[in-house]
Design a protein that fits this description.
Blueprint (H helix, E strand, L loop, with lengths): L18 E6 L5 E5 L5 E5 L6 E5 L17 E6 L5 E5 L5 E5 L4 E5 L16 E7 L4 E6 L4 E6 L4 E6 L10 E6 L5 E5 L4 E6 L12 H13 L11 E6 L14
Antiparallel strand pairs: 1-2, 2-3, 3-4, 5-6, 6-7, 7-8, 9-10, 10-11, 11-12, 13-14, 14-15, 15-16
Protein name: SMP-30/Gluconolactonase/LRE-like region domain-containing protein
């Protein structure tokens, strides 16, 4: 069945890699992620025309290693708190976007200053939200770690990949399996990436005191920024082709 109508809206000029990726907030607003653009772009569904707006401030910035403000963020996900989280590519911070107030700000520690990740550019691209674990995970593209965003505490943590993990453009995209485990899609990597977050059988928005106590225990167990912890399991799994032949296939 063909769509009823395909239309274009706005005039933002040609080229420039302005925005890269998007995520929808609960209020229906689509948030476009600033790559080379200096603003967050909002698309609010409306009839007959969508409402297009932009918000910019000093929080939208790339890393100190880049010139020209390029490749700030790559991809985003919406947390269960309703806010959108943009993943740092060249930037040194996670960017939080609140569509209800049309505000953007940095959260967490400075990734470069705190030595949370060795790679400075093309760090993470795309990610996934784990419901009932109050976490968003970003997928390592060039980074040597998995990025975790706890959107209740606004803590940002990195978890080192199994060594040795070398090369750029390793994984892009992923899925959450029925058991809550994340599997990342191979790009240049010769292995699949499996991310198992710590199990917490607690409603993150429960207001009962006993639930709050259990959440505090969970925060301690899952570590602090830059701290390695056995509470997480990040594994690189070698992948063999499903074939009757004895020969193995390899990635390009």
């Amino acid at each position: 069945m063909a769509p009823d109508k395909i239309t274009l809206h706005g005039d933002y000029g040609n080229g420039g890699h302005k925005w890269h990726g998007a995520s929808a907030a609960p209020d229906g607003t689509n948030v476009s992620v600033p790559a080379n653009a200096d603003s967050v772009h909002f698309v609010e569904p409306s009839d007959p025309e969508p409402i297009l707006t932009e918000v910019t401030n000093d929080a939208i910035q790339t890393g100190r290693h880049r010139t020209g403000g390029k490749y700030k963020y790559m991809g985003a996900m919406t947390g269960m708190d309703g806010k959108v989280y943009c993943f740092p590519s060249g930037s040194e911070y996670v960017l939080q976007v609140d569509t209800a107030t049309r505000t953007v700000r940095n959260i967490g520690l400075n990734i470069f200053n705190e030595q949370m990740e060795r790679i400075c550019q093309n760090k993470w691209q795309n990610g996934l939200t784990l419901k009932h674990k109050r976490m968003v995970f970003a997928i390592p593209l060039g980074a040597e770690s998995v990025l975790q965003i706890d959107y209740r505490s606004e803590d940002v943590t990195t978890w080192p990949l199994p060594c040795p993990v070398q090369g750029l453009a390793k994984w892009e995209g992923g899925v959450v399996a029925s058991n809550g485990v994340i599997y990342c899609v191979r790009n240049n990597s010769k292995a699949a990436l499996r991310i198992e977050a710590p199990f917490v059988d607690v409603d993150p928005y429960a207001k009962k005191p006993q639930d709050e106590e259990r959440l505090l225990v969970f925060v301690y167990n899952c570590g602090i920024p830059t701290l390695k912890s056995s509470a997480h399991r990040v594994e690189v799994c070698t992948v063999q082709a499903n074939t009757r032949s004895k020969s193995q296939t390899s990635d390009g």
